[in-house]
Write a structure and sequence with these properties.
Oligomer: single chain
Strand order of the largest sheet: 2-10-9-8-7-3-4
Structural class: alpha/beta
Shape: globular
Bound molecules: (2S)-2-hydroxybutanedioic acid
Order of helices and strands: HEHHHEHEHEEEHEHEHHEEHHHHEHEEH
Length: 404
């Protein structure tokens, strides 16, 4: 081995990403029985990542219309951004009509979180950011990278496997006016535990009373109860007449992970504010990556704006949502049969792609090393990776690691 360059001699090896690192390890695993329940990706009943029919049709249309690959506007195309606003708020929402929303195309939901965090850090440099305990592993890294100091509020109650409303409200009493609070609009990642409509009402009151800035992360719209239902909390925040920041993603709902297609939306008080916010968002985008890529946005706006493709998409999305529900039922049935006396109802109560299984890091490691079943070390299982062919193998392995 050659000696190190002095510049790099003391550079340490970075820790493996808790989610993407596992995905890499899964790809390298040669066990034919391997199962990937780590990354938040939807696999169909045949264990494949689907290319949705609506997307295939939009692709055919777009590939038939060869257009110059010039730079896009920094904020992405208006046709895409308007479609995003309608999906989040509802087509006829007065906020859209009144010019009180600004949207910019982003590199997936992660890109929206990054641009939104940089934007907020420049507007309120002394604010803290609050994330749920637990939260998606990348939230803290993105917020800290933008300069925020990050605090956690109680969320998941390990004793009930449900939501700890009292703990959350109590923790938010420590937040200062102007602090940013990250909220999962639906299908909480990693727990799958969402507040009820009434509980959301109490959270809204607390956010308003403490004058916090809500930053809603909605990466799984359509995977909980439906497109409308899953975005209801956005409209409830909008109705409170407060600044709201929203990071949204089409990675999952369009099965377009690698196109990196999402959006940052900010709700403002008036069109003049909208104009100023847009100028700041453009500034952040320019200094991060200049302007976004074309193809993903063209695909999504073609589907959303063409009624027949839109209807097909909603049907396909419902198909994914229903298959995940079936897998939840099946997993509960198969694990319960192998671990009698233990209640696995949490698996079917949780929403979206994930189930917080209660397995600990050692058990997750054992699943990986002994069975080539990959789950996140927090115990998060991506239910969307299950199918009728692997569910028994997974249930058997889960039962074995639970029994020690
Ligand atoms: C996940 O939580 O697994 C997904 O959102 C993928 C990612 O980027 O972490």
């Amino acid at each position: 081995m050659t000696s190190s360059f002095p510049l790099f001699a003391a550079v340490p090896l970075a820790a493996r990403d808790p989610i993407l690192g596992l995905n890499e390890a899964y790809q390298a695993d040669t066990n034919p029985k391997k199962v990937n329940l780590s990354i938040g990706v939807y696999y169909n009943a045949a264990g494949k990542i689907p290319v949705l029919s609506c997307v295939q049709k939009a692709m055919q249309t777009l590939l038939g219309q060869v257009s110059p690959r010039t730079y896009q506007p920094m904020e992405g195309p208006a046709v895409y951004n308007q479609a995003v606003q309608k999906l989040l708020l509802g087509a006829d929402h007065p906020i859209i009509k009144d010019g009180r929303a600004v949207t910019a195309q982003s590199l997936g939901g992660t890109g929206a979180l990054k641009v939104g965090s940089d934007l907020l850090a420049s507007i309120c440099p002394n604010a803290k950011a609050w994330v749920s305990s637990p939260t998606w592993d990348n939230h803290r890294a993105i917020l800290e990278g933008a300069g925020f100091s990050v605090e956690a509020y109680a969320y998941y109650d390990a004793t009930t496997g449900g939501f700890n409303l009292a703990g959350m409200l109590n923790d938010l009493d420590r937040a200062q006016p102007g602090d940013v609070i990250i909220l999962h609009a639906c299908c909480h990642n990693p727990t799958g535990v969402d507040p009820t409509a009434d509980e959301w009402g109490k959270i809204l009151d607390k956010v308003e009373q403490r004058k916090l800035t809500p930053f809603l992360d909605i990466a799984y719209q359509g995977f909980g109860d439906g497109l409308q239902e899953d975005s209801e909390i956005i409209r409830r925040f909008a109705a409170r007449n407060m600044p709201v920041i929203i990071a949204s993603s089409f990675s999952k709902s369009f099965s377009l992970y690698g196109e990196r297609i999402g959006a940052l939306t900010v709700l403002t008080a008036n069109p003049d504010e909208t104009k100023r916010l847009l100028s700041q968002i453009k500034r952040v985008i320019r200094s991060n990556y200049s302007n976004p890529p074309i193809f993903g946005a063209s695909l999504v706006s073609t589907v959303l704006n063409q009624p027949d493709l839109r209807a097909l998409w909603e049907e396909e999305l419902a198909g994914m949502r229903n298959r995940i529900r079936e897998m939840r039922l099946l997993l509960r049935e198969r694990v319960s049969a192998r671990v009698p006396g233990k209640n696995f109802d949490y698996i079917v109560k949780q929403r979206g792609m994930f189930s917080y299984s209660g397995l600990n890091a050692q058990q997750a490691q054992k699943l990986r090393e002994t069975y080539s079943i990959y789950i996140v070390e927090s115990g998060r299982i991506c239910v969307a990776g299950l199918n009728v062919d692997n569910v028994d193998y997974v249930a058997e392995a889960m039962a074995a690691v639970m029994k020690g």
